[in-house]
Amino acid sequence: MGNLAFMNIKSHNIVVQRTARYFALEEGASKVEDVLIVLHGYGMHAGLFLKEFTPIVRDGLLVVAPEGLSRFYRKGFDGDVVATWMTREDRLSEIADQRFFLDSLYDELMANYSPRFHVLGFSQGTATASRWMVGNSRRFHRLILWGGDFAPDAEGSILGVEKIQCVVGNQDPFIPIDIFDERCIALENKGFVVQRHVFDGKHEIPGTVLVNVWSGSVNGD
């Protein structure tokens, strides 16, 4: 936004009610023991993103993909509709809104299932995941950061989480391996045990890699 300082224009905020949505992927009708909340990246559709997780679907696991509150057309004024978690504009309000959404989703799932919660953030979703989980009174079993970074402004602990799994492709154009290593060290300096996974690939979630990472998460390896 341009400089408005020379005008008598001031920004104001009001809290309004709105409807958020999420998509769920589950197998079987037995008791849900684990919930994996997956947070998509910039410019993605949560329902399509959820398809990436079909390789790990099993009885007793519920995979849930909430969708960012800001939707837009991927190209021009028509076509595929995608979403983002936030932009730099009015960022603190957007962070508060997304946290309220995710807290409400967590509470609804907890009331229905009482499971262990795991969170996987991909790309932009990694910052959203860390901002949401840090300093939250809700309990989480494991955090997986995939192809993205822990939000630098997220300070504090995560209840139930000591180990963070960091995953990246060795050809990821957004996070070179040297930067990835620096981010892992920064997390270790925050007191987390970091388990690193580097796979042969780009900015993506290969099914075989996902199976291995998820197995380590749910089994606490």
Polypeptide structure, described:
- The protein is α/β, with parallel strands linked by helices and 221 residues long.
- It has one domain: Alpha/Beta hydrolase fold, catalytic domain (Rossmann fold).
- It is built from 5 helices and 9 strands, in the order ββαβββαβαββαβα.
- It has helices at residues 46-50, 91-113, 124-133, 177-189, 207-219, and strands at residues 22-26, 34-39, 61-66, 70-75, 78-84, 116-122, 142-146, 163-169, 193-199.
- The chain has a 7-stranded mixed β-sheet with strand order 1-3-2-6-7-8-9, sandwiched between helices. A two-stranded antiparallel ribbon has the order 4-5.
- A hairpin with a 2-residue loop joins β4 and β5.
- The radius of gyration is 18 Å and the shape is globular.
- The chain starts with 21 loop residues before the first strand and ends with a helix.
- The model has no long low-confidence stretch (mean pLDDT 90).
Core attributes:
single chain; 221 residues; alpha/beta; Rossmann fold; seven-stranded mixed beta sheet; two-stranded antiparallel sheet; 5 helices; 29% helix; globular
Tell me briefly what this model is.
By secondary structure, this protein is α/β, with parallel strands linked by helices. The chain has five helices and nine strands, in the order ββαβββαβαββαβα.
Present the secondary structure layout:
Blueprint: E1 22-26, E2 34-39, H1 46-50, E3 61-66, E4 70-75, E5 78-84, H2 91-113, E6 116-122, H3 124-133, E7 142-146, E8 163-169, H4 177-189, E9 193-199, H5 207-219
Parallel strand pairs: 2-3, 2-6, 6-7, 7-8, 8-9
Antiparallel strand pairs: 1-3, 4-5
